Amino acid sequence: MLSRLFLPLLCLIVFSPQAKAQAPVADILEAAPWGFYTPRPDGSRQLSGLWAPVVKQLQDRTGITIQTRLSPYARVLRNLATGRADLTVLIRSKRLDGAVVYAGKCFDLATVVVAKPGLAIDDLKHLEGKKVGVLRGLPYPKEFDQNPQIEKIEVRSYEVMVQMFLADRLDYIAGPNISLAHHLNQQSSRIRTGKPLILERAEVWLQISAKSPLRAQAPLFEKAVNDMRQEGFFEDLLKHQSGELWQLP
Predict the structure, then answer these.
(1) Sheet bearing 172-176, strands edge to edge
(2) CA-CA distance, 189 to 41, in Å (whole number)?
(3) Per-residue pLDDT of the chain (249 residues; tens, 9 = 90+)
(4) Rounded distance, CA 36 to CA 56, Å?
(5) Beta-carbon count within 10 A of 120 CB
(6) Using CA atoms, how far apart are residues 131 and 116, in angstroms rounded to an integer?
(7) Do 214 and 88 form a contact (C-beta atoms < 8 A)?
């Protein structure tokens, strides 16, 4: 079930091996808040989002120089599976067991339903007869997705979903907690939400392709990730990018 969270609103980096003379390349999922470009005053673009500082920290702590670029989700996964990618940060799933070496847990992630204060959201029954915003193309847990009593309104982006939610055109919104928190925070710094209903939990890990020569460096990367987590690096980063709303109960 957790493999459903591998979709584009979920957290992801891949380091792709290049020619011997070149540094490994970090393929970062091109979607806010994970990876996106922001303009500089001189007209050039700067890589922003969650994974840019993560890549820098990994580079500084391991001593391995890494280039970065944004890539679509399907290409990132394909590169990892074929061994054209060395490392990835994504949800730990049994379907990747044997294909990757796990090299440190980064943080927890969840698919949640968010409501404004005053609306009950203790279980799925509270969603029946209500309008719930969902992202088009993103699979949700079966007990939610296949409940015909829940009116699911598909939208093309989280930005549109949050705009409709703030305009009272949706009663609830559903998706990865970090993505929803980021877009809610971007739309309104004064937004208040009730306690989210968690549909599904997952753990985000640094993972090394079993086909990559960098698998020999797994202990080095694992130490870097564990140190970052224990120092509060990921918690501070998520809070900065997505505000307080990302935190799970």
Answers:
(1) 67-71, 25-29, 13-16, 87-91, 197-209, 100-115, 172-176, 131-135, 151-155
(2) 25
(3) 545 554 444 445 555 554 454 677 777 778 888 888 889 999 889 888 888 899 899 999 999 988 777 877 767 777 888 878 888 888 887 777 888 899 999 999 899 999 887 776 889 999 999 999 998 877 799 999 999 999 999 998 888 999 999 899 999 999 989 889 888 888 765 566 778 899 999 898 998 889 888 889 999 999 999 999 999 999 999 888 776 666 766
(4) 16
(5) 11
(6) 13
(7) no
